[in-house]
Amino acid sequence: MKTIRVQSFGGPEVMKLTEVDDPKPGLGQVLVRVKAAGVNPVDTYIRAGSYAVKPALPYTPGSDGAGVVETLGTGAVAFKPGDRVYFHNALGGSYAELALVMESNVHLLPEKASYSQGAALGVPYGTAHQALFKKAHAKPSETLLVHGASGGVGTAAIQLGRQAGLTVIGTAGTEKGLELVLSTGAQHVLNHHDPDFAQKLSQITGGKGVQVILEMLANVNLGKDLTYLSKFGRVVIIGSRGPVEINPRDTMTRDACVMGMTLSNATLEDLREIHEDLAHGLTEGTIKPVVGKEIPLSQAAQAHADVMAPGAHGKIVLIP
């Protein structure tokens, strides 16, 4: 099969399209023929060697994907060859024509969802769900600010927030991004470059502030986020690209809470709840993953450059 291999940590150029033997499913494993593989920012950190946990070299990047069940290992009984599925936590990487996945990390993909949409579910929707409901404990009566809402996690958070009955405010930095945030379901949209951003946000909330903020770029926004919160408000940090200085008094006066998260810390029970909820949303049509770009597998380096560029617009996927 064709796969992307990383022989040494470094820039996007270290990813090379390579031919390797087809993998064989082991105990409790499912072999999936990949139709689309999700590209996530964390993939770039791992490839660069800057992530906390480094895989043994060489390795194939990627965790998420969607495709068709090829074969089943001993003890895997929940699926059959030919089933349309999406998956997360691929054992040997998902940037490939075939991916090995533990059966518990494979889920049926409804006919109404494309493979590219399926590849957009694992990390983005899992992250948004965990941030909203396990970390922030968001409630239907609350107002949610998704700060950086036009990317994969941001669009997921809008849909999950609306599904749960929250009032959702989404931000983006371009007209195209603002249009996407609005079309995805946010009741209010704001340009985070607007010099009157704080005033407009205050007007939307009637001066009360927001109860929950999901923050995609904490090194830029966290200090200001704390001033946007209502009393007992919560900020969940999903992304950051460096240090930031904050005024702790902005948390004290509000009894505010600042939390960080990564989906890799989710428990098996967390993941079960996440994907049960996603299955319901996919079936009911309240969850519709937004795919921004479909890029050939051979151009994985370009996908890594694009996923880190400003002005995200939906999910980037690789097509084997």
Task: Give your account of this protein's structure.
- The chain is built from ten helices and 15 strands.
- With 320 residues, the chain is an alpha/beta fold.
- The chain folds into two domains: 2-120 and 290-319, Alpha-Beta Complex (Quinone Oxidoreductase, Chain A, domain 1); 124-264, Rossmann fold (3-Layer(aba) Sandwich).
- A hairpin with an 8-residue loop joins strand 1 and strand 2.
- It is globular.
- The model has no long low-confidence stretch (mean pLDDT 95).
What is the end-to-end distance? 10 Å
The low-confidence runs, each spanning 5 or more residues with pLDDT under 50, are none
DSSP helical segment count: 10
Level-1 CATH class name of the largest domain: Alpha Beta
- Indicate the CATH architecture of the largest domain: Alpha-Beta Complex
Average pLDDT rating: 95
Largest sheet, strands/sense/barrel = 7 strands, mixed
**What pattern of helices and strands is seen along the backbone?**
EEEHEEEEHHEHEHEHEHEHEHEHE
Helix/sheet category:
alpha/beta
- Given the C-alpha coordinates, what overall shape results? globular
> Superfamily at the CATH H level of the largest domain?
Medium-chain alcohol dehydrogenases, catalytic domain
Structural domain count: 2
Rg of Cα set: 20 Å
Strands, total number: 15
CATH topology of the largest domain: Quinone Oxidoreductase, Chain A, domain 1
Helical residue percent band: 25-40%
Kindly estimate the percentage of residues that lie in beta strands according to DSSP: 25-35%
